[in-house]
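Objective 1.3, modelling of assemblies. Example input:
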Amino acid sequence: MEIFQLEYITLITGGLLVLTGLWGIISQKNLIRMVIGFSLFDTGLHVIMISIGYIRNGTAPILDKAVDKVNAAGQIVDPLPQALVLTAIVIGLGVTALMLAYVVRLHKEKGSLNITNFKDLKW
Amino acid sequence: MIKKLIYILVLVGAGIIMAQLFAGFSGSTELSETARYYVESGPEETGAANLVTAVIVTYRGLDTLGEVTILFTVAAIIAFFMKTREQRDKPKRRVSEILTTGARILVPGTMLFGAYIFINGHLSPGGGFQGGAIIASGFALMLLAFPQANLSHKTIRWVESISGFSFVIIGVLGIFMAGGFLDNSILPLGNFGSLFSAGAIPIIYIFIGLKVGAELSNVVGHMHEKQKEI
Amino acid sequence: MNMTWIALIIGLIMLIMAFAAIYAKKLAVAIIAAGVVSLLASILYLTLAAPDVAMTEAAIGSGLSTIIFFYAINKIRKQSHD
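Predicted structure (tokens):
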């Protein structure tokens, strides 16, 4: 069966994680839960990107005794999405920490975590 | 009720867009052209056994520089937000004996493991970002075990600035001594697969590891310190 | 074929944990569930032949970011006591 392959399953998992994270962002009222939604969204996107770079039956892009230089191109998976996701994960932590710092600050100002209590920009 | 309906509509729309994107996907059985270039000429040009490292440090080195800059900015903004009046009160709950003793044994080992990971980044899985994150985890464990510990932000700032500066200096040296910015062949490429190989990649990765470790420790430290003032 | 089954099971657990992360009553449970999603994602990366990414996700996604979340809610709890 065509759909029952590793990369399809992880791709669909990542897509559903993105949708779950989006649902968390738009439906929750608690600011911390919205940040959790963002972090789920992030994880889903990373899983999607790694699945797109997967080559069927490939191994990790590291050359050693098992994978020699000459015919490495036929054996390993795409190193480029992995490099991009690696940096994206670190930036994701930075963005999450920044959002949490804002949340703490907002709570200090208003004394509430409920998004409906923040009406300063509402008109 | 009407609000919930709108949410569901948004979600269904996003799902349809995503399904459209996924419908064109077919599992690939061979590398794309760019990846093929990296795989075929990467080992000769950079001398790194770990191709992900080769891509991060040399081919996409400018991205990495930008990314480290983003982390620096994030750490600075968090420090700005968390800057509050210094007030050291006694912690209400005593830290448990097990955590203190365990941290005494584990923290040095964790730091050493992080250093090992970013020194061997060009040979085995791992590298500057992972090593830096592990060092920051060691800092977090230390702060959990000793909440009154005085994290020296000055030292962290110096480590971060010096490693960031050296990273850029090595990159500029590449323009004069080799092919271009962040070219790693300013040092001999050495024996493929040994520790002292791959030109400047291990040195650049050590600086990236120190910088990322310092920045993430700074973030964790600031998030911790705001806990002290009430 | 075995890898496919592992990925299927891990994917299902990930989705359940993602729902738990959004709908759990206590914030602490939600944060732990989000950390579990990250940890399982790192296993998924390992089955997809990406050990570098798996290491990063395990160290950052489930380690550091969980700690930062807990520091934040600790701070918020202290602020609301004042």
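Chain A has three helices and no strands.
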